[in-house]
Amino acid sequence: METKRFAVEGSQSSIDWTGKKVTGAHNGTIDIKAGELLLNDGKLAGGNFVIDTTSIKILDITDPGYNAQFASHLFSADFFSTEDFPEAQFVITEADHLAGEGYLITGDLTIKGITHEISFRAEVHVSGDRITAAGKIVVDRTHYDMKFRSGNFFTNLGDTLIYNEFELEVQLTAFAVL
Where does the record place a coiled coil (predicted)? Predict the structure, then answer.
């Protein structure tokens, strides 16, 4: 069994996030710092990636003052606590090949020092010394002590309710480590 290591290239990888509330949604980006993907006999077998929570950007709010205020709130203890937890991480514990380039990925997602298992479908394309991978991770924020305006913890929120789940559209590009 041949194992090959691939280093995730942060500048060619990205995360697009979407958070929804009763009255609409917000979206933006988060940078990937580093990571590694492992192939055994040409199939994804493991890996990880590190998320720079201090890089969260909001794309849908164009007013600079409101954008800065909202970003500050996302960096606060109500959400990502970026001063105490500047990184989040996903570690693959299982990669089940489905068909073609499809996989069911299971792994441990750590945000704010709290780890939970999560599974999602991904497409993984191997081309020589390069891997591209894409998948959508749906995260229940309340599992990571992000309870602000959650209907699970507060009542009578009306149209200020924020849904518990947010989406991370992850795109990774990795190159073979020689």
Answer: none
